Amino acid sequence: MSHAYKDFEPNWLRESFSPTSYRSIFKWGAPDRIKAPKESLYKLLKETFQLTDEAFSDYTEELGLDEVKYELPIRLTTQQLGKFASIVGPDYIRTDCYARLSVAYGKTMYDILRLRHKIVENVPDAVLYPDTKEQIEEIVAYCAEEKIPVYVYGGGSSVTRGVECVKGGISLDMRLRFNKVVAFNEVDQTITVEAGMSGPKLEETLNNAVQNFGAKRAYTCGHFPQSFEHSSVGGWVVTRGAGQNSTYYGCISDIVLAQEYATPIGRIKTDTYPRKAAGPDLNQIMMGSEGTFGVLTHVTLKIFRHMPETVCRYSFMFRNWETAQSAAREMMQCEAGHPSVFRLSDPEETRIMLRLYGVDETPLMRLFQSRGFKEGEMCLYLGFTNGEKGFSKNCAHMMKKIAKQYGGVSLTGYVTKSWEKGRFDDPYLRDTLQDFGVVIDTMECSVNWSNMSRVHAEVRAFCKSRPNTICMTHMSHVYPQGANLYWIFITQCRDPEEFKAYHAGILSAIQKSGASMSHHHGIGKMFAPWLEGSLGRREYAVFKALKAYFDPDNIMNPGGTLGLDLPEEEKKFLREDIK
Amino acid sequence: MSHAYKDFEPNWLRESFSPTSYRSIFKWGAPDRIKAPKESLYKLLKETFQLTDEAFSDYTEELGLDEVKYELPIRLTTQQLGKFASIVGPDYIRTDCYARLSVAYGKTMYDILRLRHKIVENVPDAVLYPDTKEQIEEIVAYCAEEKIPVYVYGGGSSVTRGVECVKGGISLDMRLRFNKVVAFNEVDQTITVEAGMSGPKLEETLNNAVQNFGAKRAYTCGHFPQSFEHSSVGGWVVTRGAGQNSTYYGCISDIVLAQEYATPIGRIKTDTYPRKAAGPDLNQIMMGSEGTFGVLTHVTLKIFRHMPETVCRYSFMFRNWETAQSAAREMMQCEAGHPSVFRLSDPEETRIMLRLYGVDETPLMRLFQSRGFKEGEMCLYLGFTNGEKGFSKNCAHMMKKIAKQYGGVSLTGYVTKSWEKGRFDDPYLRDTLQDFGVVIDTMECSVNWSNMSRVHAEVRAFCKSRPNTICMTHMSHVYPQGANLYWIFITQCRDPEEFKAYHAGILSAIQKSGASMSHHHGIGKMFAPWLEGSLGRREYAVFKALKAYFDPDNIMNPGGTLGLDLPEEEKKFLREDIK
């Protein structure tokens, strides 16, 4: 991707790099895809960080172009390695430095900063590339016997240190072979896949169901997280993810119909009934276990009709955050069905989006001004609807009607279309900017409507307490009872530990203001120290009881995931009353 | 309620009875409400059972008019009784025969048959009427210390032996005092209530939210099980119930936002965030626990706008069960939003409904015949939509359009209205008919679309294997992936054990045909022997691990609930492969 800069084009790293370099591991997504900021964003960053073009002439951060090389002993015995080779086949086990590191980290900013600095702390002893459910069951059973830690690598887009192999052992890289369709059932509108199936492959498979399965029509999976292109179905499920269209299609925990796991105590399989009243919901017990109970093997998902022709797009500008929030709440409580994408930006995000889209120099800006809207107060809302034609149309009609009732100025569907173009692209920016010491990262949480203003204000205040920090907030994944609040912050930072401390501060601010720890990123090892303090001791101990049942020897994703094996002194309790 | 019979009016029991009689306990609902069958139903029954009017002149079954009296020792000590009295107040503990029996049974047919025959097997030693969450917490903590069994009585409409006090101890009767509103939050659209709140009181409270809470508008709870008038919020939640409008509003497991329990290990409280990605879902672990983990105290429910003016009603006649099923599936998969009530009757239920409504002697019948529809093949479908005006209208429009595509003949909204009139009334029939040895009972399960015909045929075949048995089936609580199938069977039976065996046979047929044990009635003690065999040994052991954590001494609803303390030899395994 090339951008024409009018005055000065920074020295963005555009050349290709070794496929076995550190950069090849920490870089987002496809190796040959690079995204540089638009000139408007570049100017904003220079302003924010009080930098000159000079600062963007030479890289100020490690680029990670070196070949991966480190000395970490393999602690598995020859016999153990032989056993694994006999299960997956000798071509599908690797113990070289590159393979081990390639699955050791996700895309948590802390991981990326460590990898740039060649800080290699935790890698598996061997990487296995399983082909079938039965192989995975055999691997887990053997690891249970031998007490070998088991990690799983799906899409590798974790932002919670979810996949980090803290205790060595093996990591199952699901991408290569464990990514097939197991069953397609058009009558029940379901598809069963292996957990390593990637998002794009699933969606393509469903979009082409007529050709692939002789189906009557095309389908969609309905699940499009920002990490879509580099995420796997298994990752969606075990972390309780949500896609950008979740307001209509539901979060993954609504979309999953059945699951199958290979656990240390054997196979755990749930059934595919649409609903049951037969004790606690086993599906909802397994989802969110983040690899600590067992390895997810097969997943049955609900699928939806692929009807891109019924999409109705719209966008609005609201006077301020309070008015916009009220409109958003009415949209979700009016019972006109739920729109699909629903994104409401706060004043800072709006200001930056207007600049990025160049709106600040157009007649549109004068229209806002004529209505008395002020930069720094205005809020941009965009969205679209899905579903059957009449449903989609009526839903869009109601969203527009409500927006107008709350004084929103219509910006047509153009803004939404612009957003759609870049919806899976933004993470590519991270690498380019970081070469110059600029970090972009995100945090998110779930909030009730009645607490929305407080959470927004308090978390934002913390983010901005770091000098020269951009903090953009938006609301998405919206419900009649509340919504997800999502922060994108941009700051200058090079030191992994300094970043980690700032990140922890944001998480604390989120919790202190009365929001959930995460709406859809999950907990992993990064947020784990806070989990018990967030849920309460007795409530959290339920997870421990489940862990003790499924994995008594703690071989599944050990080393802090969900805090299940975290020493007491490493846990954080933000509220006294919850101990 | 009085019915004019043209020829002969059976000697239906219409006189009042002692409020401390057995009948006062096993009778459905309000003491003064009695429902006798319409003449058309009476005629049908006579035909089916080959009976003359003579048989309905004298009661052939025990009427249960005697005063409750039995000799079952109270095993609690004076000190224990004193302690309970000190917690709830001396006026709110009872140990008399009537009080003890009044909460010992639900409305399971097996219970009713036993009570008619004065078979009193299991009663609590004392009945407590708690007033506050704190009282319940103190009671449970004390019972944990003293190892006293704890049962809970809410609405008393269990059809699974859910409330039966198999091990004595205490029962908490929630109806009297533990039925208050704790909080109403219009911004978040939620209400928090004590678990003993009855369905009608909740709905009335919400319908009058303007007067009660100064709210901006009226709300509805959206949850209307057939037992609505005699059910409690707590019962809905712990059994994972579903209301007749669940296709639109969701089952209770969708409607619950947060819960609080008093368990032997202390208070368990979930939070109110609209969605989370923070480990397994604790709400979905507690729901379905049926009193075996702890006593549900407070519940926060999502509420919905009360908009009766937007309801759109419709009904159709389809040519046959296969065509009707296909139409039903298309209705749920077309993504036009979900209708609220959705009821599709199979040919036998349709035939009987036509007779009951007297349609079989009208010109309408000739219309069906002119289309080539045949009695014994035709299927009646009725429903209505809820929601915002445009949503409701579009949804109804699509349901009608699809019905017509599948050859359905429109019967207007009249049939739906007739159904609505009697929707909570039918259980009253049970008592009246049983006085003459005729039993009406129901069974239900959850089925995927692709297995619907098989489940319907096989379960129906078993039901009809009992001579002279009416077996009406309908589909309701419908999803894109399948639906609930619901059987109403009418047969002659007097012996509780004979009935129990028949009932067990139906449950076996349901499972063998590949359906779930229950969609919304729950498991209780009645279905419990099959639960482990239905889920699988390893999957079921998850429930045991949870039980061991919450209630290590098995004081919560002990004696077979969910099969958690059932001896191995009492369990049933229908499938070899699941052991």
Report on this model:
Chain A has helices at 22-26, 39-48, 78-88, 97-102, 109-116, 133-146, 199-207, 209-213, 233-239, 246-249, 252-255, 282-286, 321-333, 347-356, 363-370, 389-405, 414-421, 427-434, 452-464, 496-512, 528-535, 537-550; strands spanning 93-94, 126-128, 150-153, 170-173, 181-185, 190-194, 219-220, 256-263, 266-269, 295-302, 304-305, 312-318, 341-345, 379-385, 409-410, 438-448, 470-479, 482-492. The termini of chain A are far apart. In chain A, the strands form four sheets. A seven-stranded antiparallel β-sheet of chain A has the order 15-12-14-13-17-18-16, with helices on both faces. A five-stranded antiparallel β-sheet of chain A has the order 5-6-10-8-9. The longest helix of chain A has 17 residues, at 389-405. Chain A is of the alpha+beta class. In chain A, α5 runs antiparallel to α20 (496-512).
Residue share in helix of chain A = 25-40%
Q: Characterize the largest beta sheet of chain A: strand count, sense, and whether it forms a barrel.
A: 7 strands, antiparallel
Quantity of strands of chain A, as a count: 18
- Give the termini distance of chain A in whole angstroms: 52 Å
What is the molecular shape of chain A?
globular
Structural class based on helices, strands and sheet pairing of chain A: alpha+beta
Largest interface: A-B, 92 and 92 residues
Could you give the order of strands across the largest sheet of chain A? Answer: 15-12-14-13-17-18-16
User: What gyration radius of chain A follows from the Cα positions, in whole Å?
Assistant: 24 Å
Strand content of chain A: 15-25%
Q: Overall mean pLDDT score of chain A?
A: 95
Given as residue ranges, the uncertain stretches of chain A (5+ residues, pLDDT < 50) are none
Instruction: List the total number of helices of chain A.
Output: 22
Oligomeric status = homodimer
